[in-house]
Write a structure and sequence with these properties.
Blueprint: H1 7-20, H2 48-52, E1 54-60, H3 66-81, E2 84-90, H4 95-107, E3 112-116, H5 120-132, E4 137-140, E5 150-154, H6 156-171, E6 175-180, H7 186-201, E7 205-211, H8 218-232, E8 236-241, H9 244-256, E9 264-268, H10 272-279, E10 285-290, H11 293-308, E11 316-319, E12 322-325, H12 326-332, H13 337-343
Parallel strand pairs: 1-2, 1-3, 3-4, 4-5, 5-11, 6-7, 6-8, 8-9, 9-10
Antiparallel strand pairs: 10-12
Helix pairs in contact: 3-11, 4-5, 6-7, 8-9
Bound molecules: 5-S-methyl-5-thio-alpha-D-ribofuranose.
GO cellular component, one term: outer membrane-bounded periplasmic space
Protein name: Sugar ABC transporter substrate-binding protein
Family: Belongs to the bacterial solute-binding protein 2 family.
């Protein structure tokens, strides 16, 4: 299917294909690796199918909030570049609606499907149908239940480890902590595994309250819960809030209660709006462990495109995060995502699921 133009180009194409076949993402450096120079131009001709246009269904569980908006923007930009029509649906938090949307995508015989979040029990039956029908599928942040699908995730264990490393440093390893968590979301469950172990390893850290809600206004709901938890536990030193909507809500609560000097927030994810919250004067949100969400959306589309072209991907792609601190953002004068990714090139991973016929 892929015709390399020169012998040298063929060698490059084979090397790149090998890159996309690993069991985990190839970019693992946390801070300073730059995109490879070899990624500058296409090394293969466009498969005929892509010249004609390819349909990929993106079936989402959630769509509101900075993380999901950035992720979609990245996916759409990559789709445009690859001549892929991305047909986007969202369950808007309704799992049955997401399952129906997924069934519909399978019935419409799209060229590939990306499932973005979701609960295993609601999406796995339709994922199995897609696999049985030979429709390539990428599952982001949800267990597809079949090795035929590519499982894409951020390295959630590392996300929690980085944020909790900062929390340990900030608290000196002792103190009352509020934890924000909702069970059932695969990334949050994986981060929770690290938190559970962290508490065992650090007996000076005491979880005095667990709060959390995921809905269309997560940040304000978490703010209300965090206010109540802070009022009930006046000695709290830190809030572990490993999702940016959680961290934004926690920050609002701390500010409204006038506790900025006492309570620090350790979060996950980033957006330009989050950078604004983290860097504002006296902000309690002092660190966040994150990937670049739009980069992850791009990778999902690239992985789907490679599968449509008959390339091997995965079965697992895991995107490494970096720790971003308030200090680092302020010192670097970083005010938006573009400046952040320039400062931390490892957040951009062009060699993960690289498409050899595309210009990165
Ligand atoms: C409700 S799940 C939210 C998480 O999904 C993505 O993995 C983001 O990192 C976010 O924290």
């Amino acid at each position: 299917m892929i015709h390399a133009r020169l012998v040298g180009a063929l060698v490059s194409a084979l090397a790149l294909t090998a890159c996309s076949q690993g069991t985990t993402a190839t970019a693992t450096a946390p801070a300073s690796s730059a995109p490879s120079a070899a990624a500058a131009s296409p090394t293969a001709s466009v498969p005929a199918k892509f010249a004609a246009g390819v349909r990929v269904a993106l079936v989402r569980q959630l769509s509101s909030g900075d993380y999901f908006e950035q992720w979609l923007a990245g996916a759409q930009a990559e789709a445009k570049g690859l001549n892929v029509t991305l047909e986007v649906s969202s369950g808007d938090g309704n799992n049955d609606k997401q399952a129906l949307n997924l069934e519909q995508a399978v019935n419409q015989k799209v060229d590939a499907i990306i499932v973005d979040h979701g609960f295993a029990q609601t999406v796995q039956p339709a994922i199995k149908k897609a696999a049985d029908a030979g429709i390539p599928l990428v599952a982001f942040d949800v267990d597809p239940g079949t090795p035929k699908a590519v499982a894409l995730s951020q390295d959630d264990h590392q996300i929690a480890e980085l944020a909790l490393g900062a929390l340990k440093e900030g608290t000196g390893g002792t103190g009352d902590v509020i934890y924000v968590y909702v069970a059932g979301f695969a990334p949050l469950d994986r981060r929770n595994e690290v938190w559970t172990q962290f508490k065992k390893d650090n007996p000076g850290i005491k979880e005095v309250a667990q709060i959390g809600v995921v809905n269309n206004s997560t940040a304000s709901a978490v703010a209300d819960q965090a206010k109540a938890a802070l009022q009930a536990n006046p000695g709290v030193k830190a809030i572990f809030a490993p999702y940016d909507e959680f961290a934004k809500g926690a920050a609002l609560a701390v500010k409204e209660l006038g506790l900025r000097d006492q309570v620090k927030i350790y979060g996950a994810d980033i957006s330009t709006a989050d950078i604004g919250v983290i860097t504002e004067p006296d902000s309690p949100w002092v660190a966040t462990a994150t990937t670049d969400p739009s980069n992850v959306g791009r990778i999902a589309v690239r992985a789907a495109a490679l599968l449509v072209a008959g390339e091997q991907v995965g079965p697992e792609l895991k995107i490494p995060p970096a720790l971003v601190t308030q200090q680092q953002l302020r010192d670097g004068g970083i005010a938006n995502i573009e400046q952040l990714t320039a400062a931390i090139p490892a957040l951009t991973t062009p060699d993960v699921a690289r498409v050899p016929w595309a210009t990165p």
